[in-house]
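Usage example:
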Amino acid sequence: MKGRPGLYTSYAQDTAFLNTRPKRAWTGALVVFALLLPFAVTDDLLMLLATGFVAAIGAIGLNIVTGYAGQVSLGHAFFLAIGAYTGAALSGDPDGRVLGFGVTELPVWLLASGLVAGLAGLVVAPIAARLRGLYLAIVTLGLVFLGEHVFREWTSLTGGPGVGRPAAVPELFGVRLDRASAFFTGPQQLYLLMFVLLVIFGVLARNLVRSRIGRAFAAVRDRDLAAAVIGVDLTRYKALAFAVSSFYAGVAGSLLFVVNGFFDPGSFGLLLSVQYIAMVLIGGAGTISGAVMGALFITLLPRITRELPTVLPFISADATGGISVFQVEAVLYGLLLVVFLIVEPRGLFGIWVRVRNYWRTWPFSY
Amino acid sequence: MSEFVQSMLRGLGSGSIYALLALGFVIIYKSTRVISFAQPAFMLAGAVLVSYLAADIGFFAAVPVAAVLIAVLALGVERTVLRPMIGKPVFVVAIITIGVDVVVRVVTNSFIGLDVRQVGDPWGLSTVTLLGVDVQQRYLVMFATTAVVVAVLFAFFRFSRIGLAMRAVAYDQEVALAQGISVGSVFALSWAIAGGLAALAGVFVATGAGVDQQLWVIALKALPAIILGGLDSLGGAVVGGLAVGVVESLVGTYQGDVAPWLGPNFALVAPYVLMLVVLLVRPYGLFGSKEVERV
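Running the assembly step on the lines above writes:
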């Protein structure tokens, strides 16, 4: 309808991918901005942002199972680990110190990591579908501990604790993306790669959650009994949510350490799971863009606190005297979680919605 | 045989630590329907507090004083952080307790430093011969103290007026409120009890080994214990805690010979395997009550 952008005349219009004109404009602007960014900022920040994009893929995955389907999972680190080791083993050096098959082509190991982690999710799903609420949370927590043990002991795959192994090799059509090419530096290429992947997986997730399956997830979340009554097969949809979420975790896991190039089995502890939960909750549960915002926020947080000593002189930059920056970081992390959940339960996405609603009727207050 | 008895006693000793922690989790869960992930921090704080107090007032005075102080701390946390969250989804509240846990732990860690602090307990690693088997004294003390504490707690819930109020709140908060019970004070009290129990458990963990920054990890072993016993069963928490301790100890003793392919530290994760196996058969734990569903 011309001049009435808020008026929907069909259901399809309401559930469209980008259902309002400002949303289309904003999304387009944001994508252009992100694509131009690598030419404006330094390489170390780009690497951080690339890690943030990967974390965002993982957070979207957790959001599908926890935010949309309402099944609280503290086991995300376990699936991230499966993805990371599948990717690293597939693309690893066949003659190296640790297991490797030499399949360096990125799409191959990326999909394989996702599929293997997704299968692991499917294996866990029958147990998970029987449990609810906090029982589920603690059982998935148990998965993390079991996984940690397995990866610590399986040294031919993981290199063992404290030693680690090289991460997956990002090679696309024979070009190593982590090395500088004729036009770009390595970090610039990785940044663009991660951004493109984030857009792909973000669009896929958005399409999934606005489909019949996504509506079934939401029904299970809001009241599983009511969902069962209207004909949603609970076991099937819970299993599906776990499988899709684990697939995303696997993809993210395989990419997570590409930027650093090295990782050890100690990286996949409870802390990582809690970090992803924090991304989802601080970003806004049950929204794709919220998960992306939360992931970028959590990834950039250490960088922000590193800058604190220059502003607040009573915080020291090393671990010795007074309040160190590491303590501030850990405390800030906990405090942010608490403050966000109490003050803004809808997270960063909720803040964005409020800003948007304020300007929608500007300069009138209603 | 003596190896088996030793392993059992060791398991019962460390199991009573898990039982104390698990009781704290279950008491909070029963009254507020929330799992408090702040228990590890309270446990660590309790042990650190004793390590400071014991130098001045002696170990036996320091333990109750620390338990009371940590109980007050837990009560304060409940009043300030958790009370505004009443009525919010349980998962959100649980995550908030993780935030509390991180904050309390970081503050406590700055009092520990890099060294291992001693709590000044009189037992250390010395042993006593019991029925022809050498047993570390500390395990006997842990088991005996836990038995007394559990008995007192159960008597408190069964016979005192406040205990009755707590049971009423656990049964139905709204009905309890309608009977004139202050549900808020019951919440606060259950946090305080859980804090005190965690502090006591922290001291026990630290006897013989000392306090370091990694002590809190022990508290996570109480999680399989509460799931094993059932989230809302006090008896289940005790049984679950002891079971976790015994399984861990027995696996640690025999797994190296029986199943070496599981890796050297398998005992540490054995409780989680036990938990998964039990949950496959009974999704609400051994003694947990099944959720009643009404359409």
